[in-house]
Write a structure and sequence with these properties.
The protein has 156 residues and is an alpha/beta fold. The chain has six helices and five strands; from the N terminus they run αβαβαβαβαβα. The protein has one domain: TIM Barrel (Alpha-Beta Barrel), CATH 3.20.20.70. 37% of the residues lie in helices and 17% in strands. The chain is globular.
Length: 156
């Protein structure tokens, strides 16, 4: 990845890295060749690691994502994507926003309501999404909301 990014960057195209946002050591190896880092910020209320127990509390992703973001902000542009489901916990969303703001309040935060597809039965309601958008906009100046277009066109 590092060799490919370095080789392409010298030829002119901007290099965008789309990532789950937890492999900080790997990012460290390529960050100087990346123009845009687009990272996910997973919520433990929505996503379980394979190593997490099937039921009960899970280890939050916040520390791993914050470490990743501290490295990512060396790129000229950083975007953090937060997928929101009906099960997403407000306290966890607020903590993600606070951690992002503490690292770099200029980071773009993209709220992405989950799209009913496969095993997902429902999306969060418009009222909740608007409330989240307004609340997060007080913590971060650049908050956007976009749909999961890949799922709308049938791509998992």
């Amino acid at each position: 990845m590092a060799a490919l990014a370095r080789g392409l960057r010298g030829r002119g195209p901007r290099i965008l890295l789309e990532t789950h946002g937890v492999a900080a050591d790997a990012l460290e190896q390529v960050i100087d060749s990346i123009d845009v880092v687009s990272m996910d910020w997973k919520l433990a209320s929505d996503v379980r690691r394979a190593s997490d127990p099937r039921r009960g509390p899970v280890v939050p992703f916040h520390a791993a994502h914050e470490r990743f973001l501290r490295i990512a902000r060396r790129a000229p542009e950083v975007v953090v994507k937060l997928v929101v489901t009906p099960a997403s916990e407000d306290a966890e969303i607020d903590e993600a926003a606070a951690r992002i703001a503490s690292v770099d309040p200029g980071v773009t935060l993209v709220l992405q309501p989950v799209t009913p597809f496969g095993g997902v039965r429902e999306a969060p309601g418009a009222e909740r999404l608007l409330a989240l958008f307004l609340r997060l906009s007080r913590a971060l100046p650049d908050v956007r909301m976009i749909p999961q277009t890949h799922k709308q066109i049938g791509v998992p």
